[in-house]
Amino acid sequence: MERRNADPGLVDGMTTELGGPRTADLLARLDQVVPWETLAKPVRKLYKNKDGGAPAWPAVMMIKCVMLAKWYGLSDPQLEEHLRDRLSFRRFIGLSLIDKTPDETTFVVFRRRLRDAGLERTLFDAAGKHLEKLGVLVKEGTLVDATIIEQSCGKKRDDGTSTRDEEASFTKKHGRTYHGYKGHIAADKSGIVTDYRFSTASHHDSRYIDEMTRAEKIAVYGDSAYSDTTRRRILKSRGVIDAIVYKRNRGQKDLFDWQERWNKLVSKVRAFVEHPFARMKRTGYRDVRYRGLRRNEVDFAFNLMAHNFKHALCLV
Fold this sequence. Notes:
This protein has helices at 10-14, 21-33, 36-44, 59-71, 76-85, 87-93, 104-117, 119-134, 209-212, 229-237, 257-270, 275-282, 293-312; strands at residues 142-150, 169-173, 176-187, 193-200, 219-222, 241-244. By secondary structure, the protein is α/β, with parallel strands linked by helices. The protein folds into two domains: 10-117, no CATH class; 138-288, no CATH class. Helix 8 runs parallel beside helix 13 (293-312).
């Protein structure tokens, strides 16, 4: 059973014109793009067997809170603070000025329930189907990319143990050592992420490309990390355009002229898959927030959903 919030009262009416107009306008537009009820449907099933206790916070409200946190790069304590302080945020999630505000523990428990039920993939796919119905997807090939999301290396304790996240791993890129995880995505030419995988940082970029592009029938775009003779042959046998950047083979001093021309042509399109990562990093998603693969995998999925919805505003 979901708790019922108070209807807007006199004080709410008197403060209608207050709050940041730009934030209010953006949230109003997002409110129209996101299929809140569709996303809330599988979430409500988690509370059907809840025994006793206070009524659950509304599913739509909690999903809106998760998206707010991702759109504005907020931690759980910061989200609680903003909900108490910002009129535009309260109106967006459906709280009147006299309603109680969900606290940071509520957000932790909500994410844990979603994680335990494995609902992050369900929600991501439902969001993708909705965006497809809106007509924002450009189905002219699949673009793949991966990025490292760093985790603290931790500190040594006096007893010789470490606070390091044991599920994170090390990898090297351009001569620098990184510690953390790696996010792998597939996107269309509009920059909407259509699929994802999340792994420890030591997994090679190309590890998940084949399963993320298995259904692709037109073209597969990727940088030179995905270059593989067998993969190129399989794509050709499927009638799929091999739009993966070429790299020099062993013993090859320079790329052939036709390879360089092809790489330039491919790179102009492939660059669109880098945009989702760039946008998420601008909102603070450069480092993981949690310890452990599963917690961060769920967080990665929600970041991708938030990006897709916000980017869709430019496409509808």
